[in-house]
Amino acid sequence: MLLAILSGLLFSISIVFFGKHLKTKWSPLLLILPAILFALFASYIPFISSGNIQLQHINWVPSLGVNFDFKLDGLSLLFSLMITGIGIAIFVYARKYLKGHPYFDRFFGYLFLFMSAMLGVVLSDNILLLFIFWELTSISSFFLIGFNNDNADSRKSAITALSITGLGGFFLLASLILLGNIAGTFTISELIHSREIILADPLYPLIIGLLFVGAFTKSAQFPFHFWLPGAMKAPTPVSAYLHSATMVKAGIYVLARFSPILGSTDYWNYTLMIVGGITMVYASIHSLFRIDLKGVLAYSTISALGILTFLIGLGTKEAMIAVSVFIIAHALYKATLFLVTGIIDHETGTRDITVLAGLRKVLPPVALAGILAALSSAGFPLITFGFIGKDLIYEATLHFTNPSLIWTLTGLAIITNIGLVAAGFMAGITPFVGQLPQQFEKLHLPYKGMWIPPLVLALLGIVFGLFPGIVGELITNQTSNVIFGANTHSHLAIWHGWNLVLFLSLGTLALGSLLYIINKPNAARLAAVEKLNVISPQRIIMGIGNSIMQFSHWYTDIMHNGYLRSYHLKIILFAEAILAYKLWVSGPIYIDFWTLTYPDLYEIAIVMVLIGALYLILTTPSRLTAVVSMSVIGYCICLIFVIYSAPDLAMTQFTIDTLSTVLFVLVLYRLPGFINLTSKKVLFRDALVAIGFGVIIALTAFKIWAEPIVKDISDFYGENAYLLAKGKNVVNVILVDFRGIDTMFETVVLSIAAVGVYSMIRLRLKSSEKE
Amino acid sequence: MKSPILQSATKYLIPILLLFSFFLLLRGHYYPGGGFVGGLVASIAFVLHSFANGTEATMKILKHKPLSLIPVGLGLSTLSMTAPMLFGLPPMTGLWLEEPIPVIGMIGSSLVFDLGVYLVVIGVVLAILFTISLNNEEEKN
Q1: Cβ-Cβ contacts under 8 Å for A228 (sequence gap 6 or more)
Q2: Is A345 in contact with A337 (CB distance < 8 Å)?
Q3: What tens digit of pLDDT does each residue of A263-290 get?
Q4: A625: Cβ–Cβ under 8 A, 6 or more apart, which residues?
Q5: Phi, psi of A66 (to 5 degrees)
Q6: Measured between CB atoms, which of A659, A736, A753 is closest to B47?
Q7: Is A570 buried (19+), middle (13-18) or exposed (0-12) by CB count in 10 A?
Q8: What is the C-alpha to C-alpha distance for residues A106 and A725, in angstroms, rounded to an integer?
Q9: Taking 70 as the threshold, does the pLDDT of residue A770 lie above it?
Q10: Burial of residue A768 (number of CB atoms within 10 Å: 0-12, 13-18, 19+)
Q11: Which residues of B touch A727 (CB under 8 A)?
């Protein structure tokens, strides 16, 4: 499984080098990988459907609990098949959709990155690994939304999506770390055994609260839903793949995955039911006002995600079966509708449903795909997979554990579904029926690569509907077992006899169709609805974002004004404040003057030289003299090190001082002559800060001297330097062995500094090259 | 500042300083010294040369840009850090030859690590100083 994920990442990198060739005749190569991966996962179907689980474990950072743990069970397999299967359709489609685009190769690089990351999310059995892949999906989504990078709107939407999903990522991380600490393991399969401990922990509400924010931002739940309509700025294949079929379902996946571990409590169930309920109704009504095809689809996607959250919140056996089925049904018809929209946009240049009509005459196979998908989305009885999904939703609400809520919940589901029926028809049927406008008469079918994928997906929706047993036995049964945490014994069938659920489904379809006929969206009404945006969550969250920006501008102006002296002042003041506080708290200092020895003559001599050099620095008008005096001070400190037997320090200090004097001289060369511009007031302030620092450091030194010395650490190094690291020079052994990683990164920092200086000075533009 | 006295003195000082810096590097594991100090001393040798003969001349005896020492050094350090992983040990485990080698003494992976530090330090110091001083000389012309 690691290989499956890595192959996509490697492919993504290889596009950097071979991208040029892939643009032209080698582009069919792009389709190989998703096909292989799909075949690979499909080959696991018999194994998984008989109730087995495939595990893989590779150590990565075992000391931190981060390992490559992968698990393939029903839920992972369902998502993997969806990611790779719909992936094939999207890759085939996008190859033609973006034919000749200058960034063709880049696009596929991002798409491969996304596919791997998404597979990583659903296959990870380690929660930290899951988080890493989770973030990767957000990042690849950012690049794909902002793919048309010359469009300001597109860039803004990409930033919005990244900030919202990235913010959610932080919350998710916090939740996962708390969870791991309480349970003592980061492996999902082991977490399930710690369920009792986690539920009893006082932090439990916090854990699920943080987890919810993570999942809700990713899966566009109210009030974080607004990034998703913005994300529709991405090229259509991306909208179909990331923002309806797969990535936005990552939040749902996490909820489903953690449901057996954290779920079935009132906090869990009611939060999800309320948020999911608001989202599905709100978005379903919103979708009816859109006139942009993609807008309709975006809102109906949000609504579908709301339904999934809502169902997980119900937490019953029926609800979990409904989740497993609805995920597939929705992915199939929504991806189709998006791809159909993409073709319409590509051919006619517009997505406005008030303009589009009668396209069935010029794009017959596309019309077929669109209409089939719309029917599946509406839950047309007896032939579509969507019908089974819709049935199961009603089944789930009618079997809720709390009888007093049954009709409220069912009512919400009915309202949502009526809206979704109408929205589905608007997207899948409106553009194809009615009179063909004149300007579209000359249209012709696009490449086969573009209209075959949506048609296949739409037909699958019908095939699965006619033979639900295949999907049920193979996948959804195992999936719902995983989410429910026990055997659900689900058996999908399209015909359950004349019962209440069937009447509800038929009623929904009838009312939805009626609504579709009555509802004629137009620009004026859309504008009226948009006026309500003042109180929308988007405004509020954007407002908070803007005030954070203002705060950071203000903070930057004060703290990072670019003057070296200001930085120095602040750093020293901060250190003074902390040390002074600590000294104050730790009580008075006792100095036993009787134990002090008299200073030696050479010590007095060194201090005299120090004071003399200091006086020279403060009074000299020449920079060079000041620098040389500084190095005199440095050498004096070297002498002190030598006297107190720290030869390593002395040597280093000596060489460093020499070199920094050289550096100073080189830099001083470039400075203009010294003029004293400092006012008396500033001088006084600086003197105060400097004297304060000296006094505090001296006090600290006394304090340290008076405290008993803890020698554990130095004793450890002293004893073990030769035993473990075969060195007699403890300082050096610490540097190259015990704390070698620190040294390693220090050298890296030094190298970065050198490269920085080099590039600032040598690589800057000559004045003639500017502009 | 091309004084003949400094120029002839440098001629003899450079080999001695370089030798000394290498001596510091090798003895670091047992006595005061090590890659960092060694690297600083070696850079001082070259800085001295550049003071006596001009930076251009020093660049000529260096043949390569000092910046190119940095990746070599980082590479060596990384190598010694990751090499134990090939033997299934955690990274940074010290690997040692069984027998000491005459003159040099015990050789282990930490010496390679220190050599990396040594090269990085020389590269960084010379890159910063020479970049600035070459720039100064160019502006003067």
Answers
A1: A161, A220, A243, A248, A298, A301, A302
A2: no
A3: 888 888 899 999 999 999 988 888 888 8
A4: A616
A5: -100, 110
A6: A659
A7: middle
A8: 49
A9: no
A10: exposed
A11: 29-30, 110
CA distance A65 to A62: 5
Cα A559 from Cα A570, distance rounded (Å): 8
Is B136–A753 a contact, with Cβ atoms under 8 angstroms apart? Answer: no
How high is the ipTM of this complex? 0.88
Q: A751: distance to nearest CA of chain B, Å?
A: 6
Dihedral angle sign, alpha carbons of residues A662, A667, A670, A675: negative
CA atoms within 13 A on the CB side of A145: 28
Quote the tokens at residue A560: 């990072």
A330 by Cβ neighbours in 10 Å (0-12 / 13-18 / 19+) ranks as buried
Q: What is the pLDDT of residue B106?
A: 65
Return contacts of B17-26, CB within 8 angstroms, 24+ apart.
B17/B41, B17/B42, B17/B44, B17/B45, B17/B48, B18/B42, B18/B45, B21/B45, B21/B118, B24/A651, B25/B114, B25/B115, B25/B118, B26/B104, B26/B105, B26/B111
Best of B98, B112, B129, B140 to mutate (most A CBs within 10 Å, chain A): B129
Contact flag A755-B67 (C-beta cutoff 8 Å): yes
| Minimum Cα–Cα distance from B76: chain A residue | A744
- The pTM of this model reads 0.73
Q: A107 near A100, Cβ under 8 Å?
A: no
Determine phi and psi for A68, rounding to 5 degrees.
-80, 85
Total residue count of chain A as it appears in this document: 771
Locate B94 and state its tokens: 């010290």
